[in-house]
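FW: tagging you since you asked about this chain on Friday. Here's the raw sequence from the shared folder, copied in full. Didn't touch anything.
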Amino acid sequence: MARSRARGSVPDARMPLSAHIREFRNRLILALAGIAVGAVVGWFFYELVFDALQQPVLDAAEQSDGLVSINFAGLVTALDMQIKVSLFIGVVLAAPWWLYQLWAFVAPGLHRREKGYTVGFLGTAVVLFAGGIALAWWVYPRAVDILTGFTPEGGSNFLDAQMFMTFTLRLFLAFGIAFVFPVVMVFLSWAGVVKARTWLRGWRWAVIIIFTASAVLTPTPDVFTMLMLAVPMSALYFGAIGIASLKGRLGGRRRASREDAGAQQGGVGA
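HL: got it, structure written out here
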C-alpha cells in the first residue's frame, strides 16, 4: 500500500500512513455495517439454518439410540446461539459487500487499468467463497458422523451448544476464506507485489502448507475428507499461478508489438 494515492490528488502523490489508517477504519466500519444488516436478516432465518446444522446430530442420535444431543447448559445459551448463527448468516449474505470493501481499500494503489478488474476480481472472490461454504456443507455432516462414532459403547455424547456451534461456524468460514486466497494471489501478482514465477518456485512448500492446513481444518481423521479440501485448494493454487502469469505474457506481447511497430516506422523514415 506504499504506492497508494490519495483521492483527488496529483497522480504521483502518496497517501500518508494516517490516511491509510483512516481509510482502513472507514472500510472496516462499512464492512461491519453490511454484516450487521445481514445478521438482522439472518435473525429471521435462524431456525431454518439451525435445524439444518443440527440435522447431522439428530441423524447420529438415531443411530446411537438417542445418546447424542446438543446440550444448552445455561439460561442465555439459546440466545447466544441465535446471535452467533445470525452473525454467521450475515457474514455469508454480506460476502459481496465486505469483499468489495477489501478491494476498495487496496484499489487506490492500483493503476487505472488494474482498477478496471474490480468486477472480475469481486465476482470470482464471491463465487469461490460460496464454493468453499458449499464444500464445507458437504463435509460437515460426514465430520459429525465420524466424530460422534468414536463415542464408546454404552456412553453418551452430550455436545455443549456453545462449543459445538463455534466449531461448526469456524469450519464453514475457514473453508470459505481459504477458497478466496487464490484471488489474493492473482491480485498480488497483477499489482506487481509478487511475481507469478515466485509463486511457482514455492509450489512444493505451498502444497505442504495446503495439505497441513486441510488436515487441521477438516475435523475428521479420515484421509478422504482432508483430500476433499486439499485437492481443490492445490488446483486453485496452480490455476491462480496460470492466471497471474497471463498478464505478464500479454504485456510482453504488447511491448514486442510496440517495438516492432517502432522499428518499422523507423525503417520507413530512414
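FW: Residues 17-250 form one domain.
HL: agreed, and Residues 1-13 have pLDDT under 50 and may be disordered.
FW: great, closing this out.
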